[in-house]
Amino acid sequence: MKTGIVDVGGGLRGIFAAGVFDYCMDNAITFDLVVGVSAGSANAASFLAGQRGRNYMFYTEYAFEKEYMSLQNMLKKHSYVDLDYVYSTLSNTGGRSPLDYPALMENPAELLVAATNALTGSPKYFDKSNLAQNRYHIFKASSALPFFCKPYVVDWIPYYDGALADPVPVEKAFAWGCDKVVVVLTRPADRPRGPGKDEFFARRIQRKYPFAAKKLRTRVERYNESVELARRYEAEGKALIIAPDDICGLETLTRDKPALLKFYQKGYCTAEKIKDFLQDS
After folding, report:
1. Where are the alpha helices (DSSP H) in 177-246?
2. Residue 169 vs residues 72, 138, 274: alpha-carbon distances, Å
3. Who's near 230: CB < 8 A, 6+ residues apart?
4. Which of 84, 111, 238, 279 is deepest in the core (most CB within 10 A)?
5. pLDDT in tens, 190-246
């Protein structure tokens, strides 16, 4: 039986999934496939590298630094979140929290990182073959939030956040060959998501990236449809949704340390369901 886990990201709300992955490491729970979207790709990388608590530091410490995200970054680099600081300066060899690249590559589990082609709006799924020591560009591509970040270029193609094209890639996990899939959301599963500020941000990328803007405008529909699909798989015993009962006041880039700590604990505690789900086969 092949098992998979999907982390949909959600900016700083991704600390919920960081708690889920830390629980899995504490209880020797592994998967054959790990799919990461946006911040979920960073969670996935640390999990496969066996670096318990690594992502916790990014959410609770580094995210509060002006080098990580700030208006200063927007003015100087045209990106509110400096993806190079996150995934190179901090994560490279010699950084304050280097990714254990050899351990990541030695882990037999497959890694898929979802991004959105900014020119076409189509999904792109990177894998381990696209990585190299100190070359973590696929995580930057997956995490490039429209408006807050410039699209990140990989092999001459600009990419935006993977959530535009495939916000909840549960179908991708089953197509890969998984028999059971854990889906980690950072919003309550029983409440349809609203459009929020998607139209506002879509207008700001419309001129240069019209197809990505179209995907952004319709993202909420695909998100809600995919969550509903995951719920149907769950009713069949093929999927398990791990989701918070509330978001603790956290939006995508909310820097509220007490709320982040509470959200991490929610993820860690909710993950207890995974062990029984995987054993019940």
Report:
1. 198-205, 210-217, 219-235
2. 34, 17, 18
3. 168, 170, 181, 183, 189, 239, 241
4. 111
5. 988 888 889 999 999 999 999 999 999 999 999 999 999 999 999 999 999 999 999
